[in-house]
Specification:
The protein is an alpha/beta fold and 455 residues long. Among the domains are: 1-65 and 79-103, no CATH class; 363-455, Udp-n-acetylmuramoylalanyl-d-glutamate--2,6- Diaminopimelate Ligase, Chain: A, domain 1, CATH 3.40.1390. Helices cover 34% and strands 17% of the residues. It contains 14 helices and 14 strands. The two termini are 27 Å apart. 29% of the residues are buried.
């Protein structure tokens, strides 16, 4: 369900027009029997009746290939508002989802976003209509993308019931879908049981051509599910799980084939050991790596195991690159993005060492942290690598001297440096004249996104 171009309420109206007459009458009856409707709603009610009586040009559901529960909720709420909230919408939205599950012929993308405070709860979704068709047809046989995002703030009886439904959903998906290429499964707020972890592993193993996985805290080196995915290219872990100590010496019987790895670390150092095993399993297969929560130990592991990286993005939680630590062994590295949780990633006496030990293969460099004016000038003057692209993020140092240094570098290296981008956060402290001159040579971005993507 794509709602980018057509008015949201119009999308839902098109699907509702496909409902059987008995279902349309159920909608009318529910509104008639509601206690909330008053005389001022009569005109709106008549408009709704007219809409329900319209026949569709064709059965839109028969051509539906993508179901996104989040987009459905947004679109349905817009449709609901158009008719002045004449009724409670849960029953009618369930009726429509059931109809979609029953009639859609061939889904290629299936996305569920379930929040405990809004939207359709899992208990209101009749998944049997998807999995057990009367004609025996498998509507998920060509499914290429599966996303399941579940968010709950507190534990409850309803939460346990939702976990059971999710478990059955994954078990049925394993039987019905083996062509999934992208999979994202995240439980936020409350962690599910080990049974659900096992069912996720079985779903992974059932796929013949899985290329990308994204999880929150699902990964177990003993489980052969990921190792069995020979075509897996990308793995994202929104939390690196802590590995029990007895698994740290687990013999690595195989390596992960993935080329792209994204990990958000839990900051306690104990989780470094889990990540070390994961980096070791990826070995030289890895080409693109992003880690949030890097320290010097992780940098050493990267340089030991992942020496064929071409893209490296790291968000440091402390000062790194103290001698003799460097990235010089990454001789195929072309893209480097550095960010810092605090203010500065180098000490005063390590910047020169960092510059001297950058791999000569580097072409694109991003400093996603504030760098003081003097250090910026040192870097631009001393870095002799012919960089094609440079990017800086300045929150504090915004004086005219910063602009002058960047412009001079761009002019002197115009045959090599194709792009220089400068992200400037508020409050701005530069002069307007300097800004006008600089933007002729530098791409200056004033509207800085809060969560700049390092991936």
């Amino acid at each position: 369900m794509n709602s980018n171009k057509e008015p949201l309420f119009g999308i839902v109206q098109s699907y509702i027009s496909c409902l059987p007459d008995t279902s349309k009458q159920n909608i009318i009856d529910e509104i008639i029997n509601t206690d909330e409707k008053d005389e001022k709603d009569e005109k709106t009610f008549q408009q709704l009746q007219q809409q329900l009586q319209r026949q569709p040009l064709f059965n839109y559901i028969k051509y539906l290939q993508v179901f996104n529960s989040e987009n459905f909720d947004i679109a349905f709420n817009e449709w609901h508002k158009k008719y002045n909230n004449l009724y409670t919408n849960t029953h009618i939205s369930k009726l429509l989802i059931d109809f979609i599950f029953k009639e859609c012929p061939n889904l290629t993308k299936l996305r569920f976003y379930v929040w405990d405070k809004w939207g359709i709860p899992l208990s209101k979704m009749n998944f049997d209509l998807l999995f057990n068709r009367e004609n025996g047809k498998n509507v998920l046989i060509n499914l290429k993308e599966f996303r399941f995002i579940f968010y709950a703030k507190t534990k409850s009886d309803e939460l346990e019931n939702s976990f059971k439904i999710a478990l059955n959903l994954f078990n049925n998906m394993e039987k019905k879908s083996n062509k999934i290429q992208f999979m994202e499964i995240n439980f936020r707020g409350q962690l599910p049981s080990k049974k659900i972890d096992q069912s996720i592993g079985n779903l992974i193993k059932a796929q013949k051509n899985l290329k990308s996985c994204k999880f929150i805290e699902y990964w177990d080196p003993k489980d052969p599910s990921l190792l069995a995915c020979k075509n897996l290219e990308t793995l994202e872990l929104l939390r690196c799980p802590q590995m029990p100590s007895h698994l740290l010496d687990f013999p690595l019987k195989g390596s992960l084939p993935i080329k792209n790895l994204k990990v958000i670390m839990n900051y306690p150092a104990a989780f470094n050991e889990s990540l070390t095993v994961l980096l070791h399993m990826c070995n030289i297969n890895l080409r693109k790596l992003f880690i949030s929560g890097v320290d010097d130990i992780i940098i050493d592991n990267i340089c030991s195991y992942n020496t064929r990286l071409t893209h490296l993005s790291i968000l440091a939680q402390q000062q790194i690159f103290d001698p003799p630590q460097s990235l010089s062994v990454l001789t195929e590295l072309t893209h480097l993005k550095l960010a810092m949780i605090q203010s500065y990633i180098f000490s005063n006496d390590t910047l020169d060492y960092f510059i001297d030990t950058l791999p000569s293969s580097l072409q694109y460099l991003c400093f996603n942290f504030n760098i003081d004016t003097n250090s910026l000038k040192i870097f631009l003057n001393d870095c002799k690598i012919p960089l094609k692209s440079l990017e800086f993020h300045q929150s504090d140092s915004q004086g005219d001297e910063v602009f002058d240094s960047l412009v001079n570098y761009k002019i002197l290296n115009q045959n090599v440096c194709e792009e220089m981008r400068l992200f400037i956060e508020y409050p701005h402290t530069f002069s307007s004249n300097t800004f006008e001159k600089a933007k002729k040579h530098i791409n200056i971005i004033l509207d800085v996104p809060k969560n700049h993507d390092l991936w």
